[in-house]
Design brief:
With 227 residues, the chain is mostly helical. 65% of the residues lie in helices and 4% in strands. Helix 1 (2-9) runs parallel beside helix 4, helix 4 (54-76) packs antiparallel against helix 5 and helix 4 (54-76) runs parallel beside helix 6. The model has no long low-confidence stretch (mean pLDDT 86).
């Protein structure tokens, strides 16, 4: 999957259709990432190949598909002017830091710090008119949020909020798929993309508000969980 996306991004004559195909492949990769743990347990991979560390491979693939290739896509799509491309290196550094944190996933089912959803940000930067200085500002903002210990839902983990986020991700995915299955052209208004933006906004808004509430209440109820 990653090799296919890389091949598309290295084509000399790229068009909006090229990026549409890349995002389709990334969406498929997200679906595989959400189900690979279940499949591994079904085939008892730890018993079959005990010396194989699936978590390490998962982290490597995630860093490639969620960070490196989405940031490359943003660069290839010309979202940023030449003098602001350095912001992509800031995002790459921040994501590398985030992936290397031992406590990035909490026992109660949350991510600590922005969870490197650069593939999602890349989709909206490319499909909607978020370019130039605005795109650079968003990239730097989310890079900084990687270091801020806010908590973000981890939809595939147990927990009431996680279950709600997982359920809401289904219509969101359907909207993305509806947009990506249509031919892209530079003049088309991406209605589905605009509507689908509601889910990331809800996800981020809840994460920040819940984190603020947790900071205020942790001294009163230190064992309280938010997810």
């Amino acid at each position: 999957m990653a090799a296919w996306v890389t091949t598309l991004l290295l084509e000399p004559n790229r068009t909006p259709e090229t990026y549409r195909q890349c995002f389709l492949l990334m969406l498929l990769a997200v679906w595989i990432d959400a189900t690979d743990g279940t499949l591994a347990r079904l085939v008892r991979i730890k018993e079959t190949i005990p010396e194989f560390d699936g978590r390490r491979l998962d982290d490597l693939v995630d860093f490639l598909m969620y960070t490196c290739l989405p940031l490359l896509l943003v660069e290839r799509a010309g979202v940023l002017p030449a003098d602001l491309r350095w912001t992509l290196l800031v995002a790459l550094f921040a994501s590398g830091y985030g992936f290397c944190q031992a406590d990035v996933k909490t026992p109660d089912g949350a991510f600590v710090g922005f969870p490197s959803y650069w593939n999602v940000l890349a989709f909206y930067l490319v499909s909607l008119p978020f370019d130039g200085s605005l795109a650079a500002a968003l990239i730097v903002l989310f890079a900084i949020l990687t270091f801020v210990p806010s908590r973000y839902p981890y939809p595939t983990q147990p927990g009431r909020v996680n279950r709600w986020m997982l359920a809401l991700s289904l219509p969101w995915t359907a909207l993305l798929l509806a947009d990506l299955l249509q031919p892209w052209d530079t003049g088309r208004s991406r209605r589905e993309a605009w509507v689908s933006l509601a889910y990331p906004a809800l996800y981020l808004g809840y994460s920040w508000l819940a984190s603020l509430r947790r900071v205020r209440s942790v001294s009163e109820s230190p064992t309280r969980t938010m997810f």
